[in-house]
Amino acid sequence: MKRGGKLLVLFVVAMLVSSVAAFAAPKTWVVGFSQIGSESEWRTANTISVQNAFNDDPTFILIYSDAQQKQENQIKALRSFIARRVDAILFTALVETGYGPVLQEAKRARIPVVMIDRDVAEADRSLRLTIMGSDFVKEGEKAATWLAEYLKKKGLDDGRKTINIVELQGTTGSAPAIERKTGFANVMKNHPNWKITRSQTGNFTSSEGKQVMEAFLKADRKIDVLYAHNDQMALGAIQAIKEAGLKPGKDIIIVGVDAVKGAFEAMVAGEMNCSVECSPLLGPQAVQAMHDLRDGKRLPAKIYTIEGIFDETNAAQALPTRQY
Ligand code: AHR
Is the CB of residue 285 below 6 angstroms from any atom belonging to ligand 1? Predict the structure, then answer.
């Protein structure tokens, strides 16, 4: 074969090899992740889980943006992802409302939005593809159901005497604050003698949980139960209870949500009674969802995490295996 002919054959073979390789290897996807901040141990574990899972997969590039608890920062981040024409957006909504216009912009730009952990309000859910994370209503129900069983087991609730409950709410307007409250209230309907005497936000942080609990205790020491929408606030409140000369976990029954290590340590020390698990380890699920999207698969409307509940009966045994 003449030299020109050989070169042509080589060129065709090279083209074939590169197109087969391009077909086999998935296109690298750029994913923009808008996180809300770092208000709790839970949140830190969640950010690390997502970052590690994407770093471990060379077919993705993750652009991380921390909103520092400000909705306007999140909206700016989402707009910058759209301007960069990322392939997909991973989004934790600080609060449920106020994202409609920016989600419309993402939709117009044909950029799929996958919610992780916290969803947007019902009215905007058609603008995002799916939500992965916990069932917050169920968590509130589990917390109240645990309380009912515990009070019964300890002979503390005769169905007539008032059970005074104070509530530390999460960030006002956020999905977990709204839904954990709803879930708890659903079960409370079966216990007419339970009364929420005070309820205020502690913004999911330990410092505000402590401050608000101090104020609750100053106003009225007749408190049987503290229901905290997360462990971080419960841990802050435990400090306030101790400083007020009371025994947390004994004088006041404490129920939290998340099952972070700090809560386990408090349960083992007898200073906290129960924590409903809410797993922050959503990174692998997020990567899987992005793979499915890239492969053209349909994502389910909701991707829930399976979670347990911990108290004095199982906390010590579980503590050594906790990852967050
Ligand atoms: O959205 C999940 C909640 O946010 C976690 O319960 C809490 O700890 C976090 O700050």
Answer: no
